[in-house]
Write a structure and sequence with these properties.
The chain is built from six helices and twelve strands. Strand 6 and strand 7 form a beta hairpin. The longest helix is centred in the middle third of the chain and has 32 residues. The C terminus is likely disordered.
């Protein structure tokens, strides 16, 4: 395998001047690193009828471009048909440098090229992928945030949950029906227990404690195991509170005996 290469500084004329539709080209230096332009490409006679096509591949994207080599009357070797690469894909600027490497292996020849600016390769294809990836990440982030906000509205409806747990009710208020329940769950090898009351008697209610809200929000309600301790009917709110406190105390003792953790240490005063 043998390698040779050349570098060429790009000028405004190489990029079609100022007109976006003007053709671009660049001249091949007379001497390459190891030889000359004739051996790098081919010996060409002067005149447009002697032009020859050479496939060049961008080093970073792998995209192939067909450049046309011509020898002008002044002896210059010019590569034309370069607008797609230099102006559209790479968006080269004057004073950028284009380098072309010729790799010969088993009689197979490849021309690998890249454009550099201030010594750094211009890699618009990678940049595009990076921007797309960032846009995709941002879209995913917005979707997750939106999902969490919807979930927050659904899960963190504290006021409604406080009312059904007895908060804000008068002591003598009669509750048509209610339940005292216990919820247990295990996270990272630790078991937690929570006792509460529910005046709506719904299976999917796990308490008004912000701590319970947090665990439901993070891990989902599937981690909870709920058990109804007692069903009651037509009971005063103060009596329901007392019944709840009795079972809270019982489960605090049960948690202490079993190495569990009771979560019944938050909340507001239940009656006015």
């Amino acid at each position: 395998m043998s390698n040779d290469y050349y570098k060429k500084k790009l000028y405004p004329s190489n990029l079609g001047g100022t007109g976006i539709n003007e053709p671009s080209y660049f001249t091949v230096p007379k001497n390459t690193k190891k030889a000359n332009r004739e051996s790098f490409y081919a010996y060409l006679k002067t005149g447009p009828e002697h032009k020859k096509a050479f496939i060049h591949k961008d080093k970073w994207s792998g995209k192939e471009y067909k450049f046309i080599a011509k020898k002008h009357n002044n002896g210059e070797y010019r590569l034309t048909n370069t607008s797609e690469y230099l102006k559209q894909d790479i968006k080269a600027h004057p004073n950028d440098w284009i380098s072309v490497e010729k790799i010969t292996s088993n009689k197979e020849v490849q021309y690998i090229m890249e454009v550099t600016r201030n010594g750094e390769p211009i890699n618009n294809h990678v940049e595009e992928k990076k921007k797309k990836a960032e846009a995709k990440k941002e879209a995913k982030k917005r979707k997750i945030v939106k999902k969490f906000r919807i979930k927050e509205k659904k899960v963190f409806n504290i006021i409604k949950k406080w009312v059904r747990a007895g908060h804000g009710r008068k002591a003598h208020e009669i509750i048509p029906k209610a339940q005292i329940y216990v919820v247990t769950f295990t996270i990272e090898g630790r078991t937690y227990v929570y006792v509460g009351q529910d005046s709506k008697c719904e299976k999917s209610y796990y308490g008004s404690s912000p701590i319970m809200e947090h665990y439901e929000y993070v891990f989902g309600e599937e981690i909870f195991e709920k058990k109804i301790i007692i069903d009651v009917e037509k009971i005063r709110q103060d009596n329901l509170n007392a019944l709840e406190q009795k079972h809270i105390d019982d489960y605090k003792y049960h948690a202490e005996e079993n190495g569990w953790h009771s979560l019944n240490y938050t909340g507001l005063k239940l009656v006015k």
